[in-house]
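Support reply, case 0932

Customer input (verbatim):
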Amino acid sequence: MSSDDHAPEPVPAPEPPEHVKETAIALVGAYVDHNRDELDRVIPRATDDSDEVLSELKVIAAFLSRRVQATGVAWKPADSREAVARTVAEMLPPELEFAVSTAWEAHSVGEEETAERFTRGDPMVYVHMLAAFCAAIGLAVYKRAELVATLRQVTGLSD
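Our regenerated output:
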């Protein structure tokens, strides 16, 4: 018997708690609606679970990126830079808006070290970046109500 016969099976990553999924979708929804009050209500929850929310937003962003490709919608890095900047405009305090827009611009062209400098290690900059990106790219293929309902479905939340 080889040692491989007793190798442990890889353990799948645990599903994030429902409240994390709800928070991620609420952030995207607030950006879709340009609803600063809703964003302000969701930020404390996102801050409490920033790493988990960021992880969920990465999953959502990957899903939406695949949907854009599958539908044939033309979406280039320049489109995402402009869309993220437009999405966060007047939704955040000026210094955070600048950090999010500038970090996303660097991230979108693969300049991760530059992006990291603009985030100053604050995970919430990444959370805002991805939530704004998800809102922008999501609206390229879905209507608002469709987008939120689809995100709830793909994350396993009941509507």
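We compared this against your earlier run and they match. Two observations from our side: The mean pLDDT is 88. The chain is about 75% helix and 0% strand. Please reopen the case if you see a mismatch on your end.
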